[in-house]
Amino acid sequence: PAVKRGVTMSKSPHRKNSSVVHSLDRVVFTVPDLKAAVGYYSAFGLDVRHTAHQVDLHTHGHSQCWASILPGGAKKVLQYLVFAAFEEDMAEIRKRVESLPYSHGTPHPLGSAEGIWVVHPEGFFVQIIAASQSSPQEKLPPQLISKAPVGKGNAPTRSSIHQVKPRRLSHALLFSDKVPESVDFFTQVLGLRVTDRSDDFIVFMHGIHGSDHHMLAFVKSEGPGLHHLSWDVAQLEDVGLGMAQMLEAGYAKGWGVGRHVLGSNYFFYSRDPWGSYSEFSFDIDFVPADHDWATGNYPQHDSFYLWGPAVPEEFVINYEATSAKL
Protein backbone atom coordinates (compact mmCIF):
# COMPACT_ATOMS: atom_id res chain seq x y z
CA PRO A 1 0.00 0.00 0.00
CA ALA A 2 1.07 3.56 -0.66
CA VAL A 3 1.99 5.60 2.40
CA LYS A 4 1.27 9.24 3.20
CA ARG A 5 4.19 11.60 2.79
CA GLY A 6 4.94 15.06 4.08
CA VAL A 7 6.20 16.35 7.41
CA THR A 8 4.36 19.28 8.91
CA MET A 9 4.94 19.22 12.66
CA SER A 10 8.11 20.05 14.56
CA LYS A 11 9.78 18.38 17.51
CA SER A 12 9.30 19.40 21.10
CA PRO A 13 12.39 21.24 22.45
CA HIS A 14 12.48 18.56 25.17
CA ARG A 15 13.10 15.90 22.47
CA LYS A 16 15.26 17.97 20.11
CA ASN A 17 18.17 15.52 20.21
CA SER A 18 16.07 12.35 20.01
CA SER A 19 16.04 10.55 16.65
CA VAL A 20 13.06 8.24 17.15
CA VAL A 21 9.65 7.62 15.61
CA HIS A 22 6.70 9.79 16.55
CA SER A 23 3.67 7.77 15.38
CA LEU A 24 2.23 4.38 14.60
CA ASP A 25 1.35 5.27 11.02
CA ARG A 26 -0.38 2.14 9.75
CA VAL A 27 -1.07 -1.53 10.49
CA VAL A 28 -1.19 -3.93 7.54
CA PHE A 29 -2.72 -7.41 7.73
CA THR A 30 -4.33 -9.99 5.49
CA VAL A 31 -7.70 -11.73 5.87
CA PRO A 32 -9.46 -14.52 3.97
CA ASP A 33 -12.38 -12.36 2.77
CA LEU A 34 -12.29 -8.62 2.09
CA LYS A 35 -16.10 -8.44 2.02
CA ALA A 36 -16.16 -9.50 5.67
CA ALA A 37 -13.68 -6.73 6.46
CA VAL A 38 -15.81 -4.11 4.68
CA GLY A 39 -18.93 -5.21 6.55
CA TYR A 40 -17.32 -5.38 9.97
CA TYR A 41 -15.38 -2.10 9.91
CA SER A 42 -18.27 -0.22 8.29
CA ALA A 43 -20.49 -1.37 11.17
CA PHE A 44 -17.77 -0.26 13.60
CA GLY A 45 -18.08 3.30 12.29
CA LEU A 46 -14.88 3.69 10.27
CA ASP A 47 -14.49 5.33 6.87
CA VAL A 48 -13.87 2.16 4.87
CA ARG A 49 -12.37 2.68 1.42
CA HIS A 50 -12.09 -0.45 -0.67
CA THR A 51 -11.21 -1.82 -4.05
CA ALA A 52 -11.24 -5.39 -5.31
CA HIS A 53 -7.73 -5.87 -3.93
CA GLN A 54 -7.45 -3.80 -0.73
CA VAL A 55 -9.41 -2.24 2.13
CA ASP A 56 -8.11 0.95 3.76
CA LEU A 57 -9.39 2.07 7.15
CA HIS A 58 -9.78 5.80 7.80
CA THR A 59 -11.69 7.68 10.46
CA HIS A 60 -14.30 10.13 9.22
CA GLY A 61 -12.92 13.62 8.69
CA HIS A 62 -9.27 12.54 9.10
CA SER A 63 -6.79 12.24 6.24
CA GLN A 64 -4.75 9.44 7.83
CA CYS A 65 -5.04 5.85 6.61
CA TRP A 66 -4.71 3.89 9.85
CA ALA A 67 -4.78 0.33 8.52
CA SER A 68 -4.72 -1.57 5.25
CA ILE A 69 -6.20 -5.02 4.76
CA LEU A 70 -5.32 -7.30 1.85
CA PRO A 71 -6.58 -10.73 0.79
CA GLY A 72 -4.72 -13.66 2.28
CA GLY A 73 -5.02 -17.29 3.30
CA ALA A 74 -7.32 -19.11 5.69
CA LYS A 75 -6.45 -16.92 8.71
CA LYS A 76 -5.98 -13.28 9.51
CA VAL A 77 -2.23 -12.59 9.60
CA LEU A 78 -0.34 -9.51 10.76
CA GLN A 79 2.00 -8.62 7.88
CA TYR A 80 3.78 -5.42 8.89
CA LEU A 81 3.62 -2.21 10.88
CA VAL A 82 4.46 1.25 9.56
CA PHE A 83 5.91 3.86 11.92
CA ALA A 84 6.55 7.51 11.05
CA ALA A 85 9.45 9.78 11.98
CA PHE A 86 10.48 13.35 11.25
CA GLU A 87 12.47 13.70 8.02
CA GLU A 88 15.42 15.16 9.95
CA ASP A 89 15.67 11.96 12.02
CA MET A 90 15.63 9.38 9.23
CA ALA A 91 19.41 9.32 8.59
CA GLU A 92 20.20 8.74 12.28
CA ILE A 93 17.49 6.05 12.54
CA ARG A 94 18.88 4.30 9.47
CA LYS A 95 22.39 4.40 10.93
CA ARG A 96 21.11 2.93 14.20
CA VAL A 97 19.17 0.16 12.44
CA GLU A 98 22.22 -0.84 10.41
CA SER A 99 24.24 -1.23 13.62
CA LEU A 100 21.70 -3.55 15.28
CA PRO A 101 21.58 -7.36 14.95
CA TYR A 102 18.24 -7.44 13.11
CA SER A 103 17.60 -8.35 9.50
CA HIS A 104 16.95 -5.17 7.53
CA GLY A 105 16.85 -3.64 4.09
CA THR A 106 14.47 -5.92 2.18
CA PRO A 107 10.91 -4.56 1.83
CA HIS A 108 7.92 -6.71 2.68
CA PRO A 109 6.47 -8.34 -0.48
CA LEU A 110 3.22 -6.40 0.01
CA GLY A 111 4.94 -3.11 0.86
CA SER A 112 6.73 -0.28 -0.89
CA ALA A 113 10.47 0.40 -1.15
CA GLU A 114 10.08 3.64 0.80
CA GLY A 115 11.95 4.30 4.03
CA ILE A 116 13.64 1.71 6.22
CA TRP A 117 12.64 -1.93 6.65
CA VAL A 118 13.49 -4.10 9.69
CA VAL A 119 12.35 -7.61 10.60
CA HIS A 120 11.09 -8.29 14.12
CA PRO A 121 12.56 -11.37 15.92
CA GLU A 122 9.22 -13.16 15.44
CA GLY A 123 9.21 -12.64 11.68
CA PHE A 124 6.85 -9.76 10.92
CA PHE A 125 8.17 -6.64 9.24
CA VAL A 126 8.42 -3.02 10.39
CA GLN A 127 8.68 -0.07 8.01
CA ILE A 128 9.87 3.39 9.08
CA ILE A 129 8.95 6.35 6.86
CA ALA A 130 9.15 10.13 6.99
CA ALA A 131 5.59 11.36 7.43
CA SER A 132 3.40 13.76 9.36
CA GLN A 133 2.74 13.13 13.04
CA SER A 134 -0.56 11.33 13.50
CA SER A 135 0.00 10.60 17.17
CA PRO A 136 -1.67 13.39 19.19
CA GLN A 137 0.49 16.16 20.62
CA GLU A 138 -1.94 16.67 23.48
CA LYS A 139 -4.83 14.83 25.03
CA LEU A 140 -7.99 15.43 23.04
CA PRO A 141 -10.84 16.83 25.13
CA PRO A 142 -14.09 14.90 25.42
CA GLN A 143 -17.03 16.03 23.36
CA LEU A 144 -19.21 18.37 25.38
CA ILE A 145 -22.79 17.27 25.81
CA SER A 146 -25.45 19.92 26.24
CA LYS A 147 -27.67 19.46 29.26
CA ALA A 148 -31.43 19.42 28.99
CA PRO A 149 -33.33 22.14 30.85
CA VAL A 150 -34.84 21.35 34.21
CA GLY A 151 -37.92 19.22 33.72
CA LYS A 152 -36.58 17.41 30.65
CA GLY A 153 -34.68 14.12 30.51
CA ASN A 154 -31.01 14.15 29.47
CA ALA A 155 -31.00 10.78 27.68
CA PRO A 156 -31.81 10.85 23.95
CA THR A 157 -34.40 8.57 22.39
CA ARG A 158 -33.14 5.49 20.59
CA SER A 159 -34.46 6.78 17.28
CA SER A 160 -32.23 9.87 17.52
CA ILE A 161 -28.97 7.95 17.97
CA HIS A 162 -26.35 8.36 15.25
CA GLN A 163 -23.64 5.83 14.44
CA VAL A 164 -20.57 6.10 16.66
CA LYS A 165 -17.60 7.17 14.54
CA PRO A 166 -14.15 6.88 16.17
CA ARG A 167 -11.81 9.89 15.93
CA ARG A 168 -8.48 8.14 15.36
CA LEU A 169 -6.43 4.99 15.96
CA SER A 170 -5.04 4.99 19.50
CA HIS A 171 -2.87 1.86 19.60
CA ALA A 172 -2.27 -1.73 18.58
CA LEU A 173 -1.84 -4.68 20.93
CA LEU A 174 0.20 -7.58 19.59
CA PHE A 175 0.55 -11.15 20.72
CA SER A 176 4.15 -12.21 21.31
CA ASP A 177 5.97 -15.34 22.34
CA LYS A 178 9.03 -13.16 22.99
CA VAL A 179 7.81 -10.20 25.02
CA PRO A 180 11.25 -9.17 26.40
CA GLU A 181 12.77 -9.42 22.91
CA SER A 182 9.86 -7.40 21.49
CA VAL A 183 10.45 -4.66 24.05
CA ASP A 184 14.17 -4.61 23.23
CA PHE A 185 13.45 -4.46 19.50
CA PHE A 186 11.03 -1.53 19.65
CA THR A 187 13.22 0.30 22.16
CA GLN A 188 16.40 -0.09 20.13
CA VAL A 189 14.97 0.30 16.63
CA LEU A 190 12.20 2.86 17.10
CA GLY A 191 12.98 4.54 20.42
CA LEU A 192 9.68 3.61 22.07
CA ARG A 193 9.67 3.56 25.88
CA VAL A 194 7.96 1.28 28.37
CA THR A 195 5.09 3.04 30.10
CA ASP A 196 3.83 0.28 32.41
CA ARG A 197 3.94 -3.50 32.56
CA SER A 198 2.96 -6.68 34.39
CA ASP A 199 6.36 -8.40 34.42
CA ASP A 200 6.81 -9.99 30.97
CA PHE A 201 3.15 -10.95 30.54
CA ILE A 202 1.98 -7.61 29.15
CA VAL A 203 4.03 -4.49 28.37
CA PHE A 204 2.81 -1.07 27.20
CA MET A 205 5.04 1.28 25.17
CA HIS A 206 4.64 4.94 24.19
CA GLY A 207 6.32 7.37 21.81
CA ILE A 208 8.25 10.27 23.32
CA HIS A 209 7.02 12.99 20.93
CA GLY A 210 3.57 12.93 22.55
CA SER A 211 1.59 9.70 22.77
CA ASP A 212 -1.29 7.93 24.38
CA HIS A 213 -0.31 5.75 27.35
CA HIS A 214 0.58 3.18 24.71
CA MET A 215 0.81 3.29 20.95
CA LEU A 216 1.98 -0.33 21.01
CA ALA A 217 1.68 -3.15 23.54
CA PHE A 218 2.56 -6.85 23.78
CA VAL A 219 0.83 -9.70 25.57
CA LYS A 220 2.33 -13.15 26.11
CA SER A 221 1.16 -15.79 23.66
CA GLU A 222 2.46 -18.81 21.76
CA GLY A 223 3.43 -16.70 18.74
CA PRO A 224 3.01 -13.33 17.04
CA GLY A 225 -0.31 -11.87 15.98
CA LEU A 226 -2.61 -8.88 16.14
CA HIS A 227 -4.85 -8.96 19.21
CA HIS A 228 -6.66 -5.65 18.69
CA LEU A 229 -6.69 -2.19 17.25
CA SER A 230 -7.95 0.48 19.65
CA TRP A 231 -9.99 3.42 18.36
CA ASP A 232 -10.48 6.66 20.31
CA VAL A 233 -14.04 7.95 20.73
CA ALA A 234 -15.21 11.34 21.94
CA GLN A 235 -17.21 10.50 25.07
CA LEU A 236 -17.97 7.69 27.49
CA GLU A 237 -21.46 7.38 26.04
CA ASP A 238 -19.88 6.40 22.71
CA VAL A 239 -18.34 3.30 24.31
CA GLY A 240 -21.77 2.02 25.33
CA LEU A 241 -23.39 3.11 22.09
CA GLY A 242 -20.57 1.45 20.16
CA MET A 243 -21.29 -1.80 21.97
CA ALA A 244 -24.99 -1.55 21.08
CA GLN A 245 -24.12 -0.68 17.48
CA MET A 246 -21.99 -3.81 17.03
CA LEU A 247 -24.47 -6.10 18.76
CA GLU A 248 -27.29 -4.81 16.57
CA ALA A 249 -25.13 -5.35 13.48
CA GLY A 250 -24.81 -9.02 14.40
CA TYR A 251 -21.34 -9.00 15.97
CA ALA A 252 -22.45 -10.57 19.22
CA LYS A 253 -19.13 -11.44 20.87
CA GLY A 254 -16.93 -9.02 22.78
CA TRP A 255 -15.89 -7.78 26.19
CA GLY A 256 -17.05 -4.75 28.16
CA VAL A 257 -18.19 -2.17 28.91
CA GLY A 258 -15.46 -1.68 31.52
CA ARG A 259 -12.50 0.43 32.58
CA HIS A 260 -8.82 -0.49 32.44
CA VAL A 261 -6.32 0.25 35.21
CA LEU A 262 -3.15 0.65 33.11
CA GLY A 263 -4.09 3.32 30.60
CA SER A 264 -7.23 4.20 32.59
CA ASN A 265 -9.47 4.11 29.49
CA TYR A 266 -13.07 2.99 29.32
CA PHE A 267 -13.53 0.19 26.78
CA PHE A 268 -15.66 -2.13 24.78
CA TYR A 269 -13.97 -4.77 22.64
CA SER A 270 -15.89 -6.09 19.66
CA ARG A 271 -14.75 -9.43 18.29
CA ASP A 272 -14.14 -9.37 14.54
CA PRO A 273 -14.77 -12.23 12.06
CA TRP A 274 -11.21 -13.56 12.54
CA GLY A 275 -11.11 -13.85 16.34
CA SER A 276 -9.27 -10.61 17.07
CA TYR A 277 -10.80 -7.36 18.33
CA SER A 278 -11.54 -3.71 17.74
CA GLU A 279 -11.79 -1.52 20.83
CA PHE A 280 -13.93 1.54 21.41
CA SER A 281 -11.71 3.49 23.83
CA PHE A 282 -12.38 6.69 25.75
CA ASP A 283 -10.16 8.82 27.98
CA ILE A 284 -6.87 6.92 27.83
CA ASP A 285 -3.92 8.38 29.76
CA PHE A 286 -1.59 10.64 27.79
CA VAL A 287 2.20 11.07 27.91
CA PRO A 288 3.20 14.61 26.78
CA ALA A 289 6.41 15.18 24.85
CA ASP A 290 7.92 17.15 27.75
CA HIS A 291 7.21 14.44 30.33
CA ASP A 292 9.20 11.30 31.25
CA TRP A 293 6.73 8.70 32.51
CA ALA A 294 7.79 6.73 35.60
CA THR A 295 7.44 3.10 34.52
CA GLY A 296 5.43 0.90 36.85
CA ASN A 297 5.35 -2.89 37.22
CA TYR A 298 1.98 -4.13 38.51
CA PRO A 299 0.56 -7.56 39.40
CA GLN A 300 -1.81 -8.86 36.72
CA HIS A 301 -4.71 -9.32 39.15
CA ASP A 302 -4.44 -5.70 40.29
CA SER A 303 -3.95 -3.93 36.99
CA PHE A 304 -5.95 -5.46 34.13
CA TYR A 305 -9.34 -3.84 34.62
CA LEU A 306 -10.98 -1.81 37.36
CA TRP A 307 -14.52 -2.92 36.63
CA GLY A 308 -16.47 -4.72 33.93
CA PRO A 309 -17.81 -8.19 33.12
CA ALA A 310 -15.68 -11.30 33.41
CA VAL A 311 -13.11 -11.71 30.65
CA PRO A 312 -14.34 -14.19 27.99
CA GLU A 313 -12.13 -17.26 27.60
CA GLU A 314 -11.60 -16.62 23.89
CA PHE A 315 -10.32 -13.09 24.56
CA VAL A 316 -6.77 -14.39 25.05
CA ILE A 317 -6.71 -16.93 22.19
CA ASN A 318 -4.26 -16.08 19.42
CA TYR A 319 -6.00 -17.53 16.36
CA GLU A 320 -3.03 -16.59 14.17
CA ALA A 321 -0.74 -18.93 16.09
CA THR A 322 -3.02 -21.83 17.03
CA SER A 323 -5.24 -24.39 15.35
CA ALA A 324 -8.18 -23.38 17.55
CA LYS A 325 -11.44 -22.98 15.65
CA LEU A 326 -13.36 -19.70 15.71
What descriptive keywords fit this protein?
single chain, 326 residues, alpha+beta, 10-stranded mixed beta sheet, 19 strands, 33% strand, globular
Beta-sheet strand percentage? 25-35%
Mean pLDDT: 94
Give the helix/strand class.
alpha+beta
CA-atom Rg in angstroms: 19 Å
What is the helix fraction of residues, given as a range? 10-25%
Biggest pleated-sheet summary? 10 strands, mixed
Query: Residue ranges: pLDDT <50 for 5 or more in a row?
Result: 1-8
N-to-C order of helices and strands:
EHEEEEHEEEHEEEEEHEEEEEE
C-alpha end-to-end distance: 29 Å
Strand order of the largest sheet: 18-9-10-12-8-13-16-15-14-19
Q: Number of DSSP helices?
A: 4
Task: Give the beta-strand count.
Answer: 19
Global outline: globular
Describe this structure in words.
- This protein is of the alpha+beta class and 326 residues long.
- It is built from 4 helices and 19 strands.
- The strands form 3 sheets. A 10-stranded mixed beta sheet has the order 18-9-10-12-8-13-16-15-14-19. It has a 7-stranded mixed beta sheet with strand order 2-3-4-1-5-7-6, covered by helices on one side.
- A hairpin with a 5-residue loop joins strand 15 and strand 16 (277-282).
- The two termini are 29 Å apart.
- The model is unreliable at 1-8 (pLDDT under 50).
